Amino acid sequence: MDVMDDDFDALDDGDDGGSSLLAGVVSGALGGLAGVWIMAQVDDILEMTLDETKLGRHARPPSAKRLDDPLGVDLPPADKPAMRAARSIAGAAGYEISDEQARKAAPAFEYGFGAALGALYGGLAEFAPWATSGRGALFGAGLWAGMDLVALPRLGLSDRPESNLVAAQARAFTRRAAWSLTADAVRRMVRALF
């Protein structure tokens, strides 16, 4: 057996029904993609049911196009975290992009990031079963705490948590929970096939 076969066997030992990092990562990535889509749907529902003025924002007319962002906070387009991230990535590559270009790039960033987080979750699920506690709810709570309260504000991609109202953080937590529960359900369904 050559070295490549040994390396692949270390990643994929699922033939016996056991753990398989490769199957976990792929199924998790698919779950992450589905989770981003569901998260956007939940955000639309929250937007329709919550009185936006209670969140410290002006209500948007129902016909206004919603821009997806990781936090779900309705800020001016230039302040959307996914748009800020798109600008940062373009800037690191030596390009400056317009609001419209950042708006178009934001969903690609979100789906890519969702797939990456799902892949991480799927890999963890294979070898650290505690990561799937609560059908992914524990992972989602960790994402909310780690991303919404710490990482995004420190990277300058969102406002500091203390400047957000409790209702805005509850909305962010709900979106993370929707993502993680969906990612886990899809990961389990896909993983059952392999």
Descriptive account of the structure:
This protein has 194 residues and is mainly α. It has a domain at 108-194. The chain contains 6 helices and no strands. The protein has helices at 3-11, 21-49, 81-92, 99-127, 137-154, 166-193. Helix 2 (21-49) packs antiparallel against helix 6 (166-193), helix 3 (81-92) packs across helix 4 (99-127) and helix 5 (137-154) packs across helix 6. Mean pLDDT is 77; it is low at 1-16 and 58-79.
Lay out the secondary structure.
Elements: H1 3-11, H2 21-49, H3 81-92, H4 99-127, H5 137-154, H6 166-193
Distance between the termini: 24 Å
Mean pLDDT: 77
Largest sheet: none
What class do helices, strands and sheet pairing give?
mainly alpha
List SSEs in N-to-C order. Answer: HHHHHH
**DSSP, total strands:** 0
Shape: globular
Would you summarize the structure shown here?
The chain is mainly α and 194 residues long. The protein has helices at 3-11, 21-49, 81-92, 99-127, 137-154, 166-193.
Please name the defining characteristics of this protein.
64% helix, mainly alpha, globular, disordered N terminus
